[in-house]
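FORM 7B: Structural annotation worksheet

SECTION A. Query
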Amino acid sequence: MADEHLIKLLEEIRDLQKQQIENSRQAIANQQHAIETQKQAVRRGRSVLILVGVIVLAICFLPVFWWTLGWGSEVRTATLALKGHLVSSCSNAMF
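SECTION B. Predicted structure
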């Protein structure tokens, strides 16, 4: 009787250990999937950051290139005229 009880207890321990091993394997697989997802998110974020950086640089430096190369001479003239108009409007408004 004691032998049967001991055998049953050992079989139960064995089954629980098998279940624990399977749960550990599943947890490791889930962690690997999570790591891959995070790597994809980092790659995506890096790409977006590079794109935004290029856009910001283009917005900042394109007018400078136009100004130095003379491509924006019409824009420069219009800007100077607008500044002159604003200065005269402000000085008229003060008096």
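SECTION C. Observations
The CA atoms of residues 35 and 93 lie 64 Å apart. The longest helix spans residues 2-69.

SECTION D. Sign-off
Analyst initials: ____
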